Amino acid sequence: MGDTVRTSPTRRGGPDLLMVVAVLILALGGCAISASARAFSETMIWWLPKGIVQGLAFSLVGILIMAGLMLIDYRTLTRPGFLWAQFLGICTLLLVVLSLPEVANTSRFIAIGGMSLQPSEFAKPVLVLVLAVTLAKAGDEIRTWQGLSRPLFFAATISGLILAGKDLGGPTLLFAVTLALAVAAGARWMHVGILLGVSGLTFGIAARMQPYRWERLENFVHAWGFDASNFYDISYQLRQSLMAVGSGGIGGKGFGLSTQKAHFLPAGKNDFVFGIFAEELGLIGGIFLIGVFLFVAWRGHCIAERAADAQGRLIALGATWLVVGQALVHIAIVVGLLPTKGLPLPFVSTGGSAILAFSILMGLVLNVSMGRRSYGG
Questions:
Q1: 1 found inside a domain
Q2: Domain count, the chain
Q3: Is residue 2 part of a domain?
C-alpha cells in the first residue's frame, strides 16, 4: 500500500461525546432487544438466559474495543506494514472459510470451540482502513482509472472472496461504500457510473446463478403487488415480518411481549430483528431507533469534516456509512422495501462477530474525532 500518507499537524483532544452517547444507546439498548428476541430459544446460564449473558459479554467487549481504539492514533493502524498484515490476514481467513463445510447454504463461519467467527464481518473495518489510505494517497490521480485501480483492487479482492462464500448482500454493501468513498475522494462521476453498471451486471449474474437468490428477487417483485386478498401469496418470511411490524401498532405490545419471536418469524433474532423490535416497541420505537442511526450519520459527517487529514476524513465517512447504511438496508428488508437478505442490524442483532466488527468501526470514528487540525504556528 505504499508509503505512509503525509498528514497535517494535529492536536489530540477528547472523543465526540455526542457520538459516544449514541453508540452506548445502541450497544446497551441493542443488547436488551437482542436478549428479548431470543427468549424462546435460549438455555440458562446460572440464573440468566444465555442470550442476556452473551449479549452483555459481547457488548462489554465491544465497548472495551472502542475505548482501546481511542488510545491508538489511527495513523498507527494505517502504517504500510500493519495495513498489509490486516489485508492479508483477513483474505487468509476468508479463504479458510471457503474450505470449511457450508452452514445454511453459505461459507461464512469458522467454528472455534463452542462459538463461531465470521471473517466477512471483520473485513469491513479492514476495507475501510485500506480504502482510506489508498484513496488519500491517490490524490488528484483519483480522477483517472490509474488512480482508481488500487482501491478497486483491494475492494474487489475482499468482496470477491466474500461472494465466493455465497454471500451476495455483504459484497454489494461493501462495493457501494467503496464507490461512495471514491466520490468523496474526488473520483469522476463518469467513472463511478461505469463501475455502477459493471457492479449491477455482476449482481444480476450472481443472483441468477443461485436459484434461491432469484426466487427472493421474484418474491420481492411479487410482494409489491399484494393486497388484502393475496397477502398469503407472498413469501412466508416477509409475511411474518410484516405481521410483526404491523401488530406493533403505534406504541408496541411492550418490551418482551412479542409473539412472532416464538418461532414464527424466521431469523427473528438476527437478520429480521427489527421486526421483533417494532412489534414490541411499535412505530414510536422504530422511529426512535432510525433517528439514533441518522444521528450517528450526522455526527460521523461532522467528525469527518473536522478530521486532521484526508485519511481521517475517509475513515470516518467509510465507517459511518457502513454502520448506518447496513442499518437502513436491514430495516428496508424487514418492511419489504428491499429483497430478503441476511444482514444483521448493527448492535441489535445477535452475533458476536458483527457486534465486535461494528464496535471497531465506531471506535475508528471516535479515534478520528480525537484528532483536530492544528492552526497557527
A1: no
A2: 1
A3: no
- Does residue 33 contact residue 277 with C-beta atoms inside 8 Å? yes
Q: Enter the C-alpha cell of residue 202.
A: 455482476
**Scanning the structure block, which residue is given the C-alpha cell 418490551?**
255
**Closest C-alpha to 368, from 91, 174, 125:** 125
Q: Per the domain annotation, does 86 fall within a domain?
A: yes
pLDDT tens, position by position, 247-300: 999 999 998 888 888 878 887 888 899 999 999 999 999 999 999 999 999 999
Residues 6+ apart with CB under 8 A from 165: 94, 97, 98, 106, 107, 108, 120
Is 59 a domain residue?
yes
Dist. CA 236–CA 222, nearest whole Å = 13
Domain, as residue range, for 197: 11-373
Contacts within 8 Å (CB) and 24+ apart, 264-270 = 264/240, 265/237, 265/240, 265/241, 266/236, 266/237, 266/240, 267/237, 267/342, 268/37, 268/244, 269/34, 269/37, 269/38, 269/41, 269/51, 269/349, 269/350, 270/342, 270/344, 270/349, 270/350, 270/351
With H, G, I as helix, E, B as strand and everything else as coil, classify residue 82.
helix
CB 281 within 8 A of CB 252: yes
